[in-house]
Amino acid sequence: MNELLETFRQILHNLRWLDALDILIVAYLVYRLLLLMRGTRAVPLFRGLGLLLLIFLISSWLPTLNYILRALVPVALIALVVIFQPELRMALEHLGRGHFLGLRFSAVGGGSVPDVITSVVEAAFRMAEKGHGALIVMERSQRLSDIIRTGKAINGRVSVELLMTIFNPRTPLHDGAVVIRGAELLAASCVLPHSERPGLSTETGMRHRAALGLAERTDAAVIVISEETGNVSLAVNGTLSPALQRPQLTERLMEMFESQLQEKRFFWRK
After folding, report:
1. Would you write out the chain's pLDDT as a tens digit for each of its 270 residues?
2. Using CA atoms, how far apart are residues 183 and 173, in angstroms rounded to an integer?
């Protein structure tokens, strides 16, 4: 223990301010890279790579297996570039826009959580009265970059008018889902994965299956407006709450997003 403390003191004694700056820059770049990958297919792929690396290290005691794995390393490096091509392109795009470094060269003005929820709920029940079907995805802690890339970029501030315009049956973007992050509507006409859960009722429509499919895979809140019945439902954490009333939907959304904000504030205070 004393030797470890002495080594630590020597490192601190020899540490220059440039070394400290270098470490902070590398740590920040790694942090931004992890944020960029969050919510994309790169996360499970990296888990698979970690498992392969573990096997490679273990194979040092198995000469034949180690020889085969070493021969496959050049091929694996090329395969990685091909597999992660969408993520690499996205990283370069974010770097060019300043998003990767935490900057925003152009941004849509933010809004408070109650304002966004009020607009979403109001638009949902107005569309229900008109018999317009809709899928509204509200992103929470998990990024939905893969889902956003399937749709058309909007990057507009959330409002009742914008939502009702997008889901008007006469507009080309009404088929699919919109994705909301904070106070910004990022994309429309997005494709959601359908639930493959056995035992779903045959009366469960495609919109509800899509909402449930995303809620099973992420922590997003998905609001569904049925074109046939006019019911407003909420899919979250793998469950579907059908036929909610306006106060119920508002209360559920407020609880989810306000608690999330409180957790973030607590984390930064700590």
Report:
1. 567 677 767 776 777 777 778 888 888 877 776 766 665 556 666 777 778 788 878 888 888 888 888 888 788 778 777 766 666 665 665 555 454 455 443 333 445 788 999 999 999 999 999 999 999 999 988 888 889 999 999 999 999 999 999 999 999 999 999 999 989 999 999 999 988 776 666 567 889 999 999 998 888 999 999 998 899 999 998 899 988 999 999 999 999 887 665 555 444 454
2. 20
Q: Are residues 84 and 117 in the same domain?
A: no
CA nearest to 164, candidates 126, 138, 194 = 126
Tokens of 249: 């939907």
DSSP reduced 3-state for 143: coil
- Quote the pTM value: 0.62
Whether 214 and 256 map to the same domain: the answer is: yes
**Residue 228 is assigned to a structural domain of this protein:** yes
In which domain, by residue range, is 18 found? 2-97
CA geometry: angle 142, 82, 217, nearest 5 deg:
25
Let me know if residue 54 belongs to a domain.
yes
